[in-house]
C-alpha cells in the first residue's frame, strides 16, 4: 500500500482514501489546507503518483532509502516520513503550546502544558544562570517567560469554551483580589465546545485558525 503524509499536519492517506481524491483535486491537505509540495494535479492519470512523491514502493526492490527516512507500521500499512520532519513538527507544536495566543487546548493538554512550562522554565533558569552567573538575571528572565507561558496557555484554554482575552483580563483582576484559586478551577474544569468555534475547528495545533 502506497502512502503519503502531509509534512505540515502529519495527516496520512493512500490512493484509495477519499482524502487522496480531495488532495488530488485541490493540491492541498484535506485537514490543514496547506499546499502539498510536488503533489500532482487532478489531471494526473497514474494512481501510482505517490510512488514518485514518497520515493518508495512496496513492490520496488533494491531501492536505497534516504538515511533519515523513518518507517512506521500501523494496521498493516506502512507510513513513510523523514525523521527530520517529525522533529521539526514536534518543535513547532511545542512552541505553539507554550507561547502562541491562537487556537484551543483541552483540559488535559492544559495540565500537561503547565508541567512542560515548569520544565522549560527550570531549564531557562539554569541556562541563564550558567552564562551570567547571576541569580537576579536568571529569575527575571524565567519569571517573564513563565508569566507569558501561563497567560498564553490559559487563553487557549479559554478559547476552547468560547472565552476571549477579555475573559482572561477579568480573571487576572479577580486574581489580584485573592480569587486566583477559583479562577484556576474555572479554567481547568470548564468543559470545551464540541466541534468548531470562532477560535478553531477543534483542539490542538492542527486545528488552529489559519
Task: Characterise this structure.
The chain is mainly alpha-helical. It has 2 domains: 3-89, no CATH class; 100-196, no CATH class. It has 6 helices and 4 strands; from the N terminus they run ββααββαααα. A two-stranded antiparallel sheet has the order 1-2. The protein has a two-stranded antiparallel ribbon with strand order 3-4. β3 and β4 form a beta hairpin. α4 runs antiparallel to α5 and α5 (135-160) crosses α6. The longest helix is centred in the middle third of the chain and has 26 residues, at 107-132. It is flat, with a radius of gyration of 22 Å. The model is unreliable at 41-81 (pLDDT under 50).
Short description:
By secondary structure, the chain is mainly α. Helices cover 52% and strands 9% of the residues. The chain folds into two domains: 3-89, no CATH class; 100-196, no CATH class.
Can you count the helices? 6
Overall form = flat
**Total number of beta strands:** 4
- pLDDT averaged over residues: 77
Q: How many domains, in number, for the residues?
A: 2
Topology as H/E string?
EEHHEEHHHH
Taking strands numbered 1, 2, ... along the chain, how are they ordered across the largest sheet? Answer: 1-2
